[in-house]
């Protein structure tokens, strides 16, 4: 049985994000309803060595990535959609020694902007670590990087 096209696009998207590779982020699930990523617990993401609690920046990275990749769940083809705005409301610290999951969904798609929301959790999605809302600009499926300026400056 082959993977779904949404899951395949989400995995390709995640594979090119270097900091997610370093963090070990992986796709837990992806379909037309949304996307869930997994951030494995490791010593490299501990924010407080005395308690072992994960640094908030790792949670923010997880949720920005989940929201960004969730765009492939609703768009018919891959498009470049950079983050315009991201708000993360932390509800409580993550428990040390446990992986963190980040769910995100797109709840409104316009010609220019995609609106997302989601939450981070560990064992129980009903007990979130954080809530997130984000907006992403649609640049279109044919968008490319701008050419480098003379002398290598960008």
Automatic annotation (TrEMBL):
Pfam families (UniProt xref): 4HBT
Alphabetical UniProt keywords: Hydrolase
Top-level lineage group: Bacteria
Gene3D superfamilies for the chain: Hotdog Thioesterase
Record carries keyword Hydrolase: yes
Annotated SUPFAM superfamilies: Thioesterase/thiol ester dehydrase-isomerase
Thioesterase domain: residues covered: 52-127
InterPro entries: HotDog_dom_sf, PAAI_dom, Thioestr_dom
Protein name: PaaI family thioesterase
Organism whose genome encodes this protein: Pseudomonas schmalbachii
Lineage per the UniProt record: Bacteria, Pseudomonadati, Pseudomonadota, Gammaproteobacteria, Pseudomonadales
């Amino acid at each position: 049985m082959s993977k779904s096209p949404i899951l395949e696009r989400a995995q390709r998207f995640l594979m090119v994000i270097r900091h997610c590779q370093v963090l070990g982020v992986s796709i837990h699930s992806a379909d037309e309803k949304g996307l869930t990523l997994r951030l494995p617990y490791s010593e490299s993401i501990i924010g407080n060595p005395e308690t072992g609690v994960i640094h908030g920046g790792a949670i923010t990275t997880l949720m920005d990535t989940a929201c960004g990749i969730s765009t492939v769940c609703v768009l018919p083809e891959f498009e470049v959609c950079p983050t315009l705005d991201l708000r993360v409301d932390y509800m409580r610290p993550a428990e040390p020694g446990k992986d963190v999951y980040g769910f995100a969904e797109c709840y409104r798609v316009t010609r220019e902007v995609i609106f997302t929301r989601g939450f981070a959790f560990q064992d129980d999605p009903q007990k979130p670590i954080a809530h997130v809302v984000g907006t992403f600009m649609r640049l279109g499926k044919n968008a490319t990087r701008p050419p480098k300026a003379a002398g290598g400056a960008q």
